[in-house]
Design goal:
The complex is a heterodimer of chains A (196) and B (357). Chain A is mainly alpha-helical and 196 residues long. Chain A is built from eight helices and two strands. Chain B has 357 residues and is of the alpha+beta class. Chain B has helices at residues 3-6, 46-62, 79-87, 93-97, 133-148, 182-186, 190-199, 231-277, 283-298, 307-316, 319-326, 332-347; strands at 24-33, 69-72, 103-107, 112-116, 122-129, 155-156, 160-161, 173-180, 202-205, 218-223. Classes of the chains: A mainly alpha (196), B alpha+beta (357).
Chain lengths: 196, 357
Amino acid sequence: MKCQQCDKQAVFHITELETGEVRELHLCEDHARTYLNQSEAAEGDDEDKPSAGGLTGPLTVGQTADELALLDKKACPMCGITFFEFRNQGRLGCPHDYVHFEKELEPLIANIHGATQHTGRKPERAAAEAATLPEGTEELTGVIGLRRSMQEAITCEDYEKARESRDAIRRIEDRWLGGTGRDAATPKADTPTNET
Amino acid sequence: MKLDSLTDAVGEWLRGTGPESDIVMSSRVRLARNVAQHPFVSRMSEQDRAEAERFLRERIAAAPVGSQLEYIDVGRLEEIDRQLLVERQLISREHADAQGARGVAIDGLEQVSLMINEEDHLRIQCMHSGLDLRGAWEQIKVVDDQIGRVVPYAFHPRWGYLTACPTNVGTGIRVSVMLHLPALVITRQIDKVFRSLHKISLAVRGLYGEGSQAMGDFYQISNQTTLGKTEEELVEQVGDVVPVLIDYERRAREFLVRETQQNVHDQVSRAYGILRTAQTITAEETMQLLSRVRMGVLLGLIGDVKIADINSLLIRTQPAHLQKLRGVELDTKDRNIERARYLRRHFEGGTSPASPN
């Protein structure tokens, strides 16, 4: 078999596997070396990019560098992660990120899964709670942000504000972690005790 | 749980029973779950980690399934014990190598394992020997519901179960089978098979999950997407393709026997010969040779070895298992010598390891 790029005998037979695509290359020694060096260099460039599949690449078409820079600085009010940090690590910071970065995540998720709506199971709740609690757990995730503001208030010695945050945390935790069926385990974690 | 006692048994994935167990080693379903009131694991402070670990440990213990589970504090284990759990597929390599508060709850049969503070707060896994995805799914559903009643899983009506990595969001389910495909490897059809699997968005991985190399012709096939389909549909997606792969492998084995009887018999016999006489041998080579011998036994080319013994050797020649059985820690060089010694002793005089001399 001849090299695909010149008349020499093809001695390297390379099969490239890209997502869903297969490319077969038959090359002579010289052209194979050039080809492999190229792809190695390209791989080296990618090293610092996020590792999770499908997370790299442009977010949406038409975003300017400035817009991207702004977006990268947008931080989640609960866990504080920026979109830039997420893009680097490929891991989100807390459940609220799916709400806060919903617009940015949507094309990404569509790309990975080919869908943007969950159709599977829902959390099985004890009967008493199923009636009073909403399906989504946004409210409970709110305690992540409240804990942060409580800590900040303590640092600033604003104890009035710290107490407000603590009470808000307690109300939410009582509703979600307290009631019947949940007491079976242990009382809820005593988050605010380290305040004093 | 006394970790040392684990080495006495082979564990669920190597039990070698269940439907189609000549090709399907095991069927596994795992669910990724997070609690709603804490940041995801990579964003946790040390205190967050400890609190989430305690919260999950206590609530799991109080669930009905809790009474069947033994909790292991992975953060406090010696490296060799963590490695032992990885080799038994009860925790992931990432979980073993991580830092901070983390643990795993395991049932006595080693079918159910619940990792706390892996990439997600909770990773529930259920593994059955042979081809039994349906059985594994039915079992994990019960465990998931029991824990869901006492743990508020992070959930969003649109995005489903919320996970640290968007690649798991929605159902959080990974359905996988581990297959032994030596004949497809020998006949060089394996790449073709994998390419067609990728086309129907199934992933192929090596023996020890993500990023691991396929050792000894063992491959894991699993679903790639987790959102937009129901759990049942995803179990089916993987389940539907397995009979096809089994059929390919069987046909390749028949082809080998029919067309290259002498060659394949020679290969298998040489593999067997090395295992019985080598003086030093790596884990990778052992795995590769045991794989060939395993196929030889199934093709009737080696008469005096049992599949159960091969399966048992597959796990007991792994680094941590070998050292546990020997009772001392060994460096790589000494492990290779000890591994060869262990294999020779088991195959001595051509009798199977299980039968007394």
